[in-house]
């Protein structure tokens, strides 16, 4: 029996997360979620189980559109908020999403903003 798209997505998401757990050396996780309308990102400290910073296109000042430019604004915003929270390095958790398009634009903008991914 063939796997559904959702099953394949879950397998990919868990595979990425498990690899991150193996190599995580106390760094925080930059977790991305992409929907058809929005993209959001969180800086998560897995040791303490808290979110340190977050950004999303649902915030009016970050665009609200579903395009690469808005994703880049979100990436720049999370890099700025990470600096305020005292975070300089993070692991990029793309979840089950491919590193392409909006997800890639967000990561590149975060790197340009000074966040080491």
Automatic annotation (TrEMBL):
Keyword Flavoprotein: no
Subunit structure: Part of the 50S ribosomal subunit; part of the 5S rRNA/L5/L18/L25 subcomplex. Contacts the 5S and 23S rRNAs.
Organism: Marivita cryptomonadis
BP GO annotations: translation
Molecular function per GO: 5S rRNA binding; structural constituent of ribosome
Keywords, in A-Z order: Ribonucleoprotein, Ribosomal protein, RNA-binding, rRNA-binding
Function: This is one of the proteins that bind and probably mediate the attachment of the 5S RNA into the large ribosomal subunit, where it forms part of the central protuberance.
Database matches in PANTHER family: 39S RIBOSOMAL PROTEIN L18, MITOCHONDRIAL, LARGE RIBOSOMAL SUBUNIT PROTEIN UL18M
Protein's UniProt name: Large ribosomal subunit protein uL18
Family: Belongs to the universal ribosomal protein uL18 family.
Record's GO cellular component terms: cytosolic large ribosomal subunit
Keyword Nuclease among record annotations: no
